[in-house]
Design brief:
heterodimer, A: mainly alpha, Arc Repressor Mutant, subunit A, 2 domains, 10 helices, about 0% strand, B: alpha+beta, seven-stranded antiparallel β-sheet, two-stranded antiparallel sheet, 9 strands, transmembrane helix (chain B), membrane (chain B)
Chain lengths: ~190, ~280
């Protein structure tokens, strides 16, 4: 695992080489992409887990985003100095827009039955994790970018393409509903005897 | 750096602890990396073939891609090969909450929290009223790269046009597997994948009242060459009348629609064509 940091640097360092290959029809630079994926997959899956709330959606999200970015890899290296940051921002945005799409679909069709085999949620006894589950994805993304990535308000605004004011209001809504949910849980537990 | 309101006391600590928990780890399945690289290659090959339009380049790309794929077979036929192994913690997870943040696993520390490669926030910049600059040599080279992309025009993509009813759209044969799609219910909207193999359009949204009201581009770009991956600078040079939106920018696309650009870290991450009469 100590190989992670150097691998990122290597990815950056190769940007110059990849740039020369831009426009080539031969997918040569995908070797770099393969190294990038190999080095960063565990971290990205973990981040996806925090964003989506479960390992399946995390894998789905990571794969979709990486395939898209990989298909334009030399372009991405050329455009952004930090492909890893770019991937993470794309994941946050893809997660938000995917949810929007699913919600639209659910207006006309029932949400498909959950698959027969659902593995146990490792966090099922964590009230905070359960409370996070109920946040709309943009609020959840703000919370993850803030407490997982440690980004500032302005950085989150730039990442998600929204105004700092929106970040602030989404964050305080999220915090309030997490608080309310945690408090509510305590209260219901207290009242169960009644 | 903007400072957060001091609402991250105990709850903030709890959140940090939770996000630092080892149980968040998801183990990649064996061969997951290969599957992803193969997927990226497949996407690119489709695009290259489309762009080259039957020239020898396309043949070369096909041969190159095909050869490579035979050595990278893993998960080629699956839409979603198992990228993640099931979390090993399912049976052994401690029921009590884990002790606080003392497990900085290697991959957790990789993002260098707060690494602000993010440039200063987008809307800080004063509205630039400079009209479209005459293109310089660097811009024309990047434009020519983008010009190879499939185009999402102001009225739609290929035979799919804004305002088209579900029946008309389905009749083009470009909508997702027809057996499994149904028309949007009354007063509702539904979203359909576009399956012409070009990966140009992610999906279209059809309203029962107004027909196709939205295209979400995958690889497709506007006629001006702006699409996912374009820089904010390229976006600004291509359109002088951008309107700021919550998630990015928009500009008019013909009389009845707008192009909407989702922008993140100075890069366009998604292009949409949205009808003005969209009720979705």
């Amino acid at each position: 695992m100590t190989a992670v940091a150097p691998a990122i640097l290597r990815g950056d360092g190769r940007a110059a080489t990849a740039r020369q290959e831009r426009g080539s029809a031969v997918p040569g630079d995908l070797t770099d992409f393969a190294e990038f994926v190999e080095a960063n997959l565990p971290g990205l899956l973990r981040y996806g887990h925090a964003l989506t709330g479960n390992p399946h959606d995390a894998a789905d999200l990571v794969q979709t985003v990486l395939e898209k970015i990989g298909s334009r890899w030399s372009h991405v290296l050329h455009k952004t100095g930090d492909p890893l940051a770019y991937v993470r921002r794309s994941m946050a945005n893809a997660h938000i827009s995917r949810w929007r799409r699913l919600r639209r679909e659910s207006l006309v069709a029932d949400i498909p039955e959950p698959s027969a085999f659902t593995p146990a949620d490792p966090f099922e006894h964590e009230p905070l994790w359960q409370a996070l589950r109920d946040l709309p994805p943009r609020q959840r993304a703000v919370i993850v970018l803030r407490y997982y990535e440690g980004l500032s308000e302005a950085e989150i605004a730039a990442s998600l393409g929204v105004s700092p004011g929106t970040v602030k209001s989404q964050a305080s809504k999220a915090i309030a509903s997490l608080r309310g949910k945690l408090r509510g849980d305590e209260e219901t537990e207290g009242r169960e005897a009644v | 750096m903007t400072h957060w309101e001091p609402d991250d006391d105990a709850l903030g600590d709890e959140l940090r602890r939770l996000f630092d928990d080892d149980r968040l780890d998801v183990r990649p399945a064996a061969g997951a990396g290969d599957a992803i690289v193969a997927g990226a290659r497949r996407r690119r090959r489709r695009r290259t073939v489309m762009a080259a339009g039957g020239g020898t380049l396309a043949v070369l790309a096909l041969v190159g891609g095909g050869l490579a794929l035979t050595t990278l077979r893993g998960g080629e036929d699956h839409r979603h090969p198992p990228v993640a192994a099931m979390p090993q913690t399912t049976t052994t997870s401690p029921v009590t909450s884990a002790p606080s943040a003392s497990s900085p696993s290697a991959e957790r520390s990789e993002p260098t929290p707060g690494s602000p490669q993010t440039p200063p926030s987008v809307e800080q910049q004063p509205p630039q009223s400079q009209p479209v600059r005459p293109s310089t040599s660097t811009e024309s080279t990047s434009a020519s790269v983008l010009a190879d992309r499939p185009v999402l025009g102001t009225d739609g993509y290929r035979q799919l046009a804004l305002g088209m009813s579900y029946q008309e759209a389905a009749a083009t044969g470009l909508l997702g597997p027809v057996e499994t799609t149904t028309a949007p219910a009354d007063n509702a909207c539904a979203t359909y994948a576009v399956t012409d193999g070009a990966n140009a359009i992610e999906d279209v949204t059809i309203s029962s009242a107004n027909g196709i009201v939205r295209f979400r581009a995958a690889d497709a770009a506007t006629p001006e060459g702006i699409g996912a991956g374009s820089s904010l600078d390229q976006l600004r040079s291509a359109y002088s009348d951008l309107t700021t939106e919550p998630s990015g920018y928009s500009t008019s696309a013909g009389a009845g629609a707008r192009y909407s650009f989702v922008v993140s870290t100075e890069t366009v991450t998604e292009l949409q064509l949205v009808a003005l009469n969209s009720d979705c």
